Hints:
Helix 3 (63-86) runs antiparallel to helix 18 and helix 10 runs parallel beside helix 19 (532-566). The protein has a domain at 20-201 and 214-276. The model has no long low-confidence stretch (mean pLDDT 91). Strand 1 (203-206) and strand 2 (212-215) form a beta hairpin. Strands 1-2 form a two-stranded antiparallel sheet. The chain has a two-stranded antiparallel ribbon with strand order 3-4. By secondary structure, it is an all-alpha fold. It has 19 helices and 4 strands.
Amino acid sequence: MNLPGILQVVVFLALVLAIAKPLGTYMARVFDGERTPLSPVLAPVEGLIYRLCGIDPAAEQGWVAYAAGMLLFNLAGLLVLYGILRLQGLLPFNPQGLGGVAPDLAFNAAVSFDTNTNWQFYVPETTMSYLSQMAGLAFHNFVSAATGIAIAVALIRGLARRRANAIGNFWVDTVRSTLYVLLPISILVLVWQGVPQNLNPYTAATTLAGATQTIAQGPVASQEAIKELGTNGGGFFNANSAHPFENPTPLSNFVEVLLIFAIPSGLTYTFGRMVGDTRQGWAIWAAMAILFVVGIAVALPAEQAGNPLAAKYGVDQQMSALQAGGNFEGKETRFGIASSMLFTVVTTDASCGAVNNMHDSLMPLAGMVPLVNMQLGEVIFGGVGAGLYGMLIFAILAVFIAGLMVGRTPEYLGKKVESFEIKMAMLSVLILALSILGLTGLASVTDAGTSAILNPGPHGFSEILYAFSSGAGNNGSAFAGLSSNPFYDVTMSLAMLFGRFLMIVPILAIAGSMVRKQRVPPSLGTFPTNGALFVGLLVGVVLIVGALTYFPALALGPIVEHLLLLAGRTF
């Protein structure tokens, strides 16, 4: 790695660390129902929402009722968004006169935004009207992120409370996530950096060469901040954050990548504060940070080293004062390799999926990093809420393994981890693996799956594997190289639904089981979960589970592609 790239990563990680405590403290106060600096303004709005919706904020729910509310709310949101997309041609705020979205594509898009995946099998600026972008997609950017935060808070309560029957109120947690956390921070719009915000028709311009060019625009800035903050990732333009209207400058690029990690980092401190031991939160943060550093330490040098096939023909790929060096294919000259790879690793550590470069153009080892990030469950800070509850599942598995080593019943935060919790934890892990590997296998052996591949060979397999890793991991980024067809519309929709809701239900079941347990006082045989030893064990469990599950598939894709490159062969 070069010095500027290292400094950029160090500054970024330092800012992520600096954000954790103040933002985490604020969120803990919000979800504990305490007064905050925004309460004088937002509390009356919150109360009005409860009255209009018939919500009793004092009534709490068990895990079954909490899960039922979450599922029904998201089902309703999916159906409403599907209706908006299908009827788009009849609805207002459509200056381009775009027609309704095709049924299979509308279903895929509705599922995608409902599950916080934001996978886009379409060109947004030629497919979605302004109303669809604002009332449909941007709305789900808020509520899908709020759902993830609510589930994380419910699990925290399950671990923190003693002999209770309830884990909170889904409706209250969702309202507070949106009103007190997501909306205020999203006021940090990017108009000041040149991101457009208007309802004007697209502009027809004449180039210097005399050709006609259509310049797309619209209400971009109001959606850009929540796209990153809510780890949604769906772009207003097809080029996403590589487009100068979504990400105009190196400063806007750094702000966007910082927004992706902001809430996931803060939630680790929220966890520590709510369970009464902030060291527990810092242990989770440290494990996430270690895995992040490992990813960037692999991806950045692999990309900076360049393409050995190009070097074979004497192409100078060394960084110098006159050139950036390395593999610059698919990257913006505004950002360079270091900023591009930082964005790549962060967006796939979190379940964001926004991109400022073409992941399909990465060198094989660099491209394997985002694949692995998603396959680990996107627990490296992860999506808003989803990263924390995913890492807590691994924490439960880690203390179970530690308990087996010393021959005693495992405990986490003073609560015994028994067979039910382990079954539910493994169920959530296996659901992700089955969704990714099962659907990748199906696509690899059927005509409908292979006919959409534009790059045959190991890279084509990587594109399929990446697609389902992205869908099941609720990420939304892509290797591209796959043509949209009904097969992928349907199978990707299934992957997104499985990866979101079939994982959440077992997690809420764990919360419901743990909340009923009494805490036992620590003893000499208690395995501490707030120190370096636990951090190392947690990181090891995450990596070992990921390697045992996905290494064979990775060997068929990016690993063999890398070996072919070293042998000087094309593919």
